[in-house]
Design goal:
The complex is a heterodimer of chains A (248) and B (326). Chain A is an alpha/beta fold. Helix content of chain A is 32%, strand content 12%. Classes of the chains: A alpha/beta (248), B alpha/beta (326).
């Protein structure tokens, strides 16, 4: 029996579109998906903006819903898709824009834009605060190999999951220097792994772009960090990817 | 055998094998793939990482299938674990028993030569006397290896063989002057090491000891200790769907991670850090000695060296032993 190909679409809200680029970096591996699925929407591969009335089996959404148009598009995609998957930090936990929420957003707005330039100043919300999200693929950008694993699973009807380990596992396996032991701030012990500890490879402490790991020992990490850092310094790092919001 | 002859022997090995050996990098020694003799560190300093990944890679594909075809992915490259210290040999000896019936491990092992090395006792070995630490004369009889090299005080090297495979490799490389040592089992004739028995007692009934509550207040459950531990061998098996077919993967895991004890309905036996810590010690100091009469911990202190909050296994054992006597 010949089954119908699964129909999928990729949608970008406000973002750098780095996640979609990360997927295109898979090159032939990405296009090999065509054997099993039909890619019906992918802005970076099309000439015009795609806003048709089509249906999708899976919609992948990157970016944050920051404008009225974004919110409208997101709600529409949700209606069109059987399964909605939020990909990347912006869609998952709010992304870098979320920093705005930690200060006076009017003040920030006036600092960046002078006068009324027609830019909206919404609160920054992750995608699942607006629509129901079936799965998350975290990361800044998303890990393209993890995406492949995910979609291969969905094609055969497996409900996919990502491993629940902290970044320290991947860092220690690769033998990278522990920046926490060096006295720097690193959120590796409490952050969901799957990034191959790529920041630690360059001796850059983890800022938690993939969100909190299951059973993360946040209090113990903060206790340890307080020995060498002020609360201000710790909070600054916790705010980059909005980990601060996930602490309760 | 002098240094020049040793160099010749090692260079022969390097010519047609992948060789892993201790190597100095940024003031520390790491087990790394080696390209030439000069890279090898012969000081007997304990490497920061162990030889574990040579025998059990952090991630490996066990088999894959596409359609009706089914392919077992066996590693086949000839590999040499060179200049393995005695502690890592103990961990390896444990692995040889744990993975005795594991075809994937055994296939890799068939193509791997284990060459031990010592340049005498480490200066600070007495510091860790809470562990077994009996570097007595017949220690080699209870270790599994193919070849063992000992550096003598006069700078010369003497050779031992521990298997037929090792003997063959020595003969092929024109090393005629060696002594053969027959593996005499895990347990010495004199019986199980008293420290092993004492530590087992100290850990076994200690779950209510305050130590575990105190450690749970600082432990990050990052699992670095278990990743770096040469005797931690727990793994996950996962079937990874591909575009066509499926791959079965084996990956290291750890009792510090949530997936380790997860069952249906997202229930976890090891939900709290206290239980994770106790479970880790219990496996090393109670279950492994019980099952194999052998060490589940080889006192390398690597777990302490990598711990971001400085949890010291030797100090903890000492404390449990002391509390148990009360």
């Amino acid at each position: 029996m010949k089954t119908k190909k699964m129909e999928i679409g990729f949608f970008s809200l406000t973002s750098c579109e780095g996640c979609l680029f990360a997927l295109l970096d898979l090159k032939e591996k990405f296009f090999a998906l065509n054997k099993k699925v039909r890619i019906k929407s992918f802005r970076l591969l099309e000439e015009g903006i795609h806003m048709s009335e089509e249906k999708f089996d899976i919609a992948f959404v990157e970016g944050s819903p920051l404008t009225e148009q974004n919110i409208e598009q997101l709600k529409k995609v949700r209606k069109q898709a059987k399964t909605l998957i939020a990909i990347g930090s912006c869609a998952h936990i709010g992304g870098i824009y979320h920093l705005k929420q930690y200060s006076d957003k009017e003040k920030i707005f006036n600092y960046v834009y002078s006068g009324n330039v027609g830019v909206e100043n919404f609160d920054v919300l992750p995608v699942n605060k607006i629509v129901k999200v079936d799965y998350f693929l975290p990361g800044c950008p998303v890990n393209a190999n993890e995406f492949l694993q995910f979609i291969h699973g969905l094609i055969i009807g497996k409900s996919p999951s990502i491993e629940q380990n902290p970044v320290c596992r991947e860092c220690q396996i690769r033998g990278y220097e522990c920046v926490l032991q060096k006295g720097e701030i690193c959120l590796g012990p409490i952050t969901q792994a799957g990034c191959d500890a790529v920041c630690l490879k360059s001796k850059q402490g983890c800022w938690g772009c993939r969100g909190l790991a299951e059973d993360a020992q946040i209090e113990n990490l903060v206790k340890e960090l307080r020995k060498k850092h002020t609360d201000h310094e710790i909070i600054k790092v916790l705010e980059v990817f909005g980990i601060k919001d996930l602490l309760n | 055998m002098d240094l020049g002859e040793l160099q010749k022997f090692v260079e022969n090995l390097l010519s047609d094998n992948i060789v892993y050996a201790p190597m100095k990098k940024e003031a520390k020694v790491f087990v790394s793939p080696i390209n030439n003799f000069a890279e090898i560190d012969w000081t007997s300093e304990l490497p920061a990482n162990s030889f574990k990944s040579v025998f059990l890679p952090p991630e490996e594909i066990l088999w894959k299938n596409a359609g009706k075809k089914f392919k077992t992915a066996f590693a086949s490259k000839k590999t040499i674990a060179l200049a393995m210290n005695v502690l890592d040999l103990q961990a390896f000896t444990l692995f040889e028993h744990v993975f005795e019936k594991d075809i994937y491990y055994q296939r890799r092992r068939q193509n791997t030569f284990v060459v031990g090395f010592t340049a005498g006792l480490p200066d600070d070995f007495r510091k860790y006397k809470i562990f077994h630490a009996d570097y007595e004369e017949n220690v080699l009889e209870h270790l599994i290896f193919d070849i063992f090299i000992e550096k003598q005080k006069n700078g010369n090297f003497i050779f031992f063989s521990g298997s037929e495979k090792g003997q063959k490799l020595l003969e092929e490389n024109n090393v005629k002057d060696y002594e053969h040592i027959e593996f005499a089992g895990l347990v010495p004739e004199s019986g199980m090491n008293p420290r092993l028995i004492a530590n087992r007692k100290a850990v076994e009934l200690s779950f209510n000891d305050k130590l575990w509550d105190e450690l749970a207040e600082i432990c990050l459950a990052c699992g670095k200790c278990s990743v770096v531990c040469p005797t931690c061998f727990c793994f996950n098996l996962e079937d990874d769907p591909q575009l066509n077919g499926v791959e079965r993967k084996r990956q290291w895991t750890s009792c510090f991670y949530p997936e380790f004890s997860k069952i249906c309905g997202n229930k976890k036996e090891l939900a709290e850090v206290k239980k994770k810590l106790y479970f880790w010690y219990y496996h090393k100091f109670v279950r492994i000695p019980e099952e194999l009469s052998y060490y589940g911990c080889v006192s390398c202190m690597r777990c302490f060296n990598v711990c971001p909050v400085g949890i010291n296994i030797a100090a903890n054992l000492q404390r449990l032993a002391k509390n148990q006597q009360k």
